[in-house]
């Protein structure tokens, strides 16, 4: 069996080769499938292992996003299922993944869904927050909002929703001005670009 150390030596050689050819291996993004896998795993866990599983999945997801070589190992047919499972299980152990989580990683290898781990981690985190009554919210603006404004928005949303909120703020210059707020599948768009798009849609219907 190929050890993790040997696998990462192979990673280094692959990384050099890929860097020389300037190739990138894309990450598969299938949110709907990722949500189903995250839900299946969530339902297998007891409450005492949800948070450790969340942290392990988040760490694995970030590792796959960051490492071209690791993505190659888990996606390439050159490395067999046993090697992929061994590498993921060892990484999972280092990240504190419980036994059910490691068994789940093995199933992802068998189903050829390892490339979905970043999306599964995001979906699982939302389920974990929802179980604790925390609402995930994304707020985007044209420019970085000062801390006082972020606190004001957080307080207002928390009071409106009557629950704890976990807000991620980011910027998008295309908004021009205003805010775009994502609450699950709901989008509240008060940006200039959003209003212009709504106006254009209305005019094209006439």
Shape: elongated
The SSE order reads HHHHHHHEHEEEH
In which range does the helix fraction lie?
55-70%
CATH homologous superfamily annotation of the largest domain? N-terminal domain of the delta subunit of the F1F0-ATP synthase
Question: What can you see in these coordinates?
Answer:
With 206 residues, the protein is an alpha+beta fold. The protein is built from nine helices and four strands. A four-stranded mixed beta sheet has the order 2-1-3-4, with helices on both faces. The termini are far apart.
Features:
206 residues, alpha+beta, Peroxidase, domain 1, 2 domains, 9 helices, 63% helix, 12% strand, elongated
Task: Itemize the secondary structure elements and their pairings.
Elements: H1 4-21, H2 31-44, H3 47-66, H4 68-75, H5 81-94, H6 99-110, H7 117-131, E1 134-141, H8 147-161, E2 164-171, E3 179-183, E4 186-189, H9 192-205
Parallel strand pairs: 1-2
Antiparallel strand pairs: 1-3, 3-4
Helix pairs in contact: 1-4, 2-7, 3-5, 3-7, 5-6
In short:
The protein has nine helices and four strands, in the order αααααααβαβββα.
